[in-house]
C-alpha cells in the first residue's frame, strides 16, 4: 500500500469536545463565543472564543512546559488521527505523531 498523508486536522474550539459536539454546534447554529471586558480600555469589549481546557496532560503525557498553542495543536492532531480510523497495524499514524512529540520533548 502507498504512503498516506493526513491532510485533515482535529479541532479545538469553545464548546466543542469531540466531532459530535462540533456537528451539534454547527447544526444548531450555537454561538460559542464570549464577550470579554478589555482591561486596558474599560469602555470596550472583545468577542473571543474561550477554550477552558488547558491540555497540560494529553493521553497520559505531561506537556505543561509547552506553550498552550502547541499543546492544543498536539491534542488536535491526536484527535484527528483517532478519528481517521486507520488500521494501526498497517498505518501507525497515531503512534508516528506521538513519536514526533517525544522527539520534540528531548
Distance between the termini: 32 Å
Shape type: flat
- Annotation field: number of helices: 3
User: Helix and strand string, N-terminal first?
Assistant: HEEEEHH
The mean pLDDT is 79
Output the structural class. Answer: alpha+beta
Structure, described:
The structure is a single chain. This protein has 106 residues and is of the alpha+beta class. Helices cover 37% and strands 11% of the residues. The chain has three helices and four strands, in the order H-E-E-E-E-H-H. It has helices at 19-28, 68-83, 93-105; strands at 34-37, 45-48, 57-58, 61-62. Helix 2 (68-83) packs antiparallel against helix 3 (93-105).
Helix and strand arrangement:
Layout: H1 19-28, E1 34-37, E2 45-48, E3 57-58, E4 61-62, H2 68-83, H3 93-105
Antiparallel strand pairs: 1-2, 3-4
Helix pairs in contact: 2-3
Task: Provide key terms for this protein.
11% strand, two-stranded antiparallel ribbon
Summarize the structure.
With 106 residues, the protein is an alpha+beta fold. Helices cover 37% and strands 11% of the residues. It contains 3 helices and 4 strands; from the N terminus they run αββββαα.
